[in-house]
Specification:
Two copies of one chain form a homodimer.
Chain A lengths: L10 E10 L19 E9 L10 E7 L4 H9 L10 H6 L1 H9 L2 H4 L6 H22 L3 H7 L2 H6 L12 H11 L3 H11 L1 E9 L5 H13 L4 E5 L4 H15 L4 E5 L6 H11 L4 E5 L7 H11 L3 E4 L6 H9 L5 E2 L9 H14 L12 H15 L9 E3 L13 E2 L2 E2 L13 H7 L5 H7 L20
Parallel strand pairs in A: 4-5, 4-10, 5-6, 6-7, 7-8, 8-9
Antiparallel strand pairs in A: 1-2, 2-3, 4-12, 11-12
Helix pairs in contact in A: 1-5, 3-5, 6-16, 8-15, 9-16, 10-11, 12-13, 14-15
Chain lengths: 464, 464
């Protein structure tokens, strides 16, 4: 006899892909710590049974890396496979937090972190794939699923372990309930106008002053109200480049600077003060992302220049301390560094509690696609404002995604496609899988490339 | 014509091994976070050319893991191979810091950390293998090589990036120079008496009170002046077990307690205070190893109980902050978690600067073998004392090493075999390689084990 109720579909497989783009060969930009990145993704697809409740959908997720080690990241994702294969699609979509807890709580794999580095990024990729699946099943873009969710349910998605001294579940619930006031109007505004972005394109270290000037002016003409410059390799160069950029954009556009962890604490203070004359809006990653006390010392010394960090901050516990110590003015979440949407919910709630604006890191492969959803949720249903909030934008590799970001007048347009915008085009997977994809197979065999032109005109790799 | 000088031998290969011991099947102990570890090692051997200067030696190193994910750790070690293969044995032995800097500085691999988790532990394994090679080439046990080294050379082995605000090279040099005073007498004392250990064997969570009492008394009879109890699963149980242990050892033996990161900050304070009546010497890993400010809050609240942590602290930058914030009374280095001997030199120097005693974490696979060298160097040539300093000891898996630790009257005896005591027996590699070693091949084929008795009588796995 057939079952009286539809059988729930199960997750049948976690397929992984080592995707690498040869961005170091046509590099338009670089920074003080990352001279030659090959933008890569350790990519996965959750497959589901073809019949039953929730059948036939796929969940996509990935970790962004910059080349070597992408295979290690893929191996880490594969080590998590047994936690999701066999699970009911319906159940994981109803409660992605159960997957998050199972992955973070694996006592043997936990030894490899805990909650940091390769293993934690792999957890983030799998958890994000579950959220992609959940949003597709709900037939909503992820930002909307989150913004419309019950505050109680959102609180249930957060792991308060190690952060309860700074944020209790009760406080989180109160923040989310307050965030619902006026949410409908903000959703309408978001759909109309989008969420403000800023661009890093003019500011790569290797550019001539002429190119910097031209691209900076272009950024302002494109509607951006903030640009960013890489600094940290040579102080005299940085002084000249900051002056050049400030002259190009005028006093009314914000100029952020980014040292990519290049400095010790005292160097960061000295260098930032030397650039203060050009009114930098923030100094980003002045030192190690692990150094909470160092950031606090820098912030005190370089005010009114704001201190920003986060793209390499490993988890909610370090973000908690950056906030507790008053170490940052700007919190830069990354969608694919921490343990996925669940942990980023915790981090957004911590930022809201401490009143620190969130300005996400993006660029790389697909980071813009992912993180826009988190900022849009933050605007609609938590922080309630876009004031002093901008999402980084870098114009590369978007064409590899089936639902790439859309920028208009310097604003990210609200996604409408169901899911987390994480799905790469099948052609891109086939071409750039390493080492067997068509691009790499030809390349590694020493054959001439099929074309000297970049396959995708937007391949302009540089780490943001 | 043959070269006028001997050709220096080169490193020819990095051979890797996924070694796993089935400790979860015969588990004598467990803790609040690690119920079923399969003690494992991601193991590597640096091979060298058979002729030339420095020929024929091997460098051995490993990362300790507790089972699943050991393959990920092996993959991470393999991702580092290109940095060492082809290097001159003579050059890397003369300056292991060049290898350390090359590995930590790989800009693409750095993205996967930086300096934390899987990738950083892999760096530690390779760097430690280089030190093993260097000590074998010098025909000294590593502790002696370090203790006899020029202070200037030792300072050149330390990466001061991100710690110079707490410790300058000049300060490090002064500490090492001062450490040389009286070193000969301390070397003699070390060779005579050894370095004090403490034992975790009585205190695993699952033991009956009778067994706890018996093993605690045995530990005292064996010459140990400190034992350790796992806590954190159930407060009533912990109160009873602490009382039982204290009654067994009397007031004069130290009783450390270890929560293995089980608590939030407020729980840690409450729980530790509830156990204070039994005069615990330290509370170990009360909360997340990432939580510097949390440890500072706990320390302030639970004094005079000391706060200890370190076995999961990811790098020198977090240790620096634990010291700057006054967050710990006892610093617990681990030989195979951070970036190898070079980073542990930095951490030992930081501890000396701040006057905090170092009591290493050990146990697992080979951690006792490695870390004894670092404590013995610290005693002879840096801290200059063993007061309030003890190395953890757990009696398992030592027989797999060619030069296992030797305990006498509760003291680690100074190793005399050249190297870092990191070399595993060839038979053990052949038997416990996963999944193709003889043990696992039989096991995975579902065949009965050749014997129901543990192959090695000391297989008593439990995470220390």
């Amino acid at each position: 006899m057939p079952p009286a109720y539809p059988t729930p579909a199960r997750i049948t497989a976690v397929d992984t892909y080592d995707i690498r783009f040869p961005t170091s060969r046509e590099l338009d930009g670089s920074d003080a710590m990352n001279p030659d990145p090959d933008y890569s993704a350790a990519y996965l697809v959750l497959r589901t049974e073809p019949t039953g409740t929730g059948a036939g959908l796929e969940g996509h997720g990935f970790t962004f890396t910059i080349g070597r080690g992408n295979d290690v990241q893929v191996a880490a994702i594969e080590a998590l496979r047994h936690h999701v294969v066999g699970r009911s699609v319906e159940e994981v979509c109803a409660d992605p937090g159960t997957v998050n807890r199972a992955l973070v709580g694996d006592s043997q794999l936990r030894w490899l972190g805990p909650e940091k580095g390769v293993m934690h990024m792999a957890i983030g990729a799998v958890v994000n794939a579950v959220w992609d699946l959940a949003a597709k099943r709900a037939e909503k873009p992820l930002w909307q699923l989150l913004a419309e969710a019950d505050p109680e349910w959102l609180v249930s998605q957060v792991d308060f372990r190690y952060i309860a001294d700074a944020l209790t579940p009760e406080e989180a619930l109160a923040l989310l309930r307050a965030g619902r006031e006026g949410a409908a109007a903000r959703t309408a505004a978001l759909r109309e106008r989008g969420f403000p972005g800023y661009t890093t394109s003019p500011g790569w270290l290797g550019y001539s002053d002429e190119k910097l000037t031209r691209l900076a002016r272009q950024a302002v003409a494109d509607g951006f109200t903030q640009i960013k410059l890489k600094v940290g390799a040579d102080l005299d160069d940085d002084i000249r480049r900051c002056r050049t950029a400030r002259e190009a954009i005028g006093p009314g556009v914000r100029l952020a600077i980014d040292a990519n962890q290049r400095w010790n604490v005292d160097e960061a203070i000295r260098w930032t003060r030397a650039l203060a004359a050009f009114d930098p809006y923030w100094i980003e990653e002045p030192t190690s992302p692990d150094d909470v006390l160092g950031h606090a010392a820098i912030r005190e010394a370089v005010a009114p220049v704001r201190v920003a960090t986060g793209e390499h901050v490993q988890n909610r516990i370090v973000f908690k301390q950056l906030l507790q110590a008053g170490a940052i003015d700007v919190l830069q979440i990354d969608a694919a560094r921490v343990g996925g949407v669940n942990e980023n919910l915790a981090i957004l709630l911590l930022a809201a509690k401490f009143g620190v604006p969130v300005c996400p890191h993006a660029g790389g492969v697909g980071l813009c696609e992912l993180v826009q959803h988190l900022s849009m949720f933050d605007y609609v249903a938590l922080a309630g404002t876009t004031e002093n909030r901008v999402i980084e934008y870098v114009d590369h590799l978007h064409d590899h995604f089936t639902a790439p970001v859309v920028l208009r007048d310097g604003h990210y347009q609200a996604p409408t496609t169901p899911g987390f915008s994480a799905t790469m085009r099948a052609e891109s997977l086939a071409e750039f899988a390493y080492p067997d994809g068509t691009f790499w197979a030809a390349d590694l065999a020493g054959q001439p490339q099929r074309t000297q032109e970049p396959r995708h005109p937007r391949h302009k790799g540089a780490v943001a």
